[in-house]
User: What shape does this take?
Amino acid sequence: MAYIPPWQRLCDCRCLVHHQQPRTTYTDPDCACTITCATQPLTLLADRWGCALFLDHGGDLWHVPAMANGTFDWAYAAEIDSRHDSYDASRTIEHLLRQAAHVLQASIN
Assistant: This one.
């Protein structure tokens, strides 16, 4: 089976907005995708920051706030930019997630 990048996969987490659809944006209203949806790129749960951090299809770091019961508030997902309180730390995390993605990709090829 060939490797399919997350942003080209179909949603498999029963989200009413994305189920069996490609997920092209992360901030769709009423999105209920889980962090383990097939469309979700490499993800890091960041409990201390109250969010999950993930790489989008371009390799940029985003955050999505955590809610109760292991759900996430996708309406408030956003790319981490220089105005973010933890920007310096996020640059290191972004670099490490990119490295991990490259290692995982190389192991598949």
Observations:
- The chain has a mean pLDDT of 87.
- The chain has one helix and four strands.
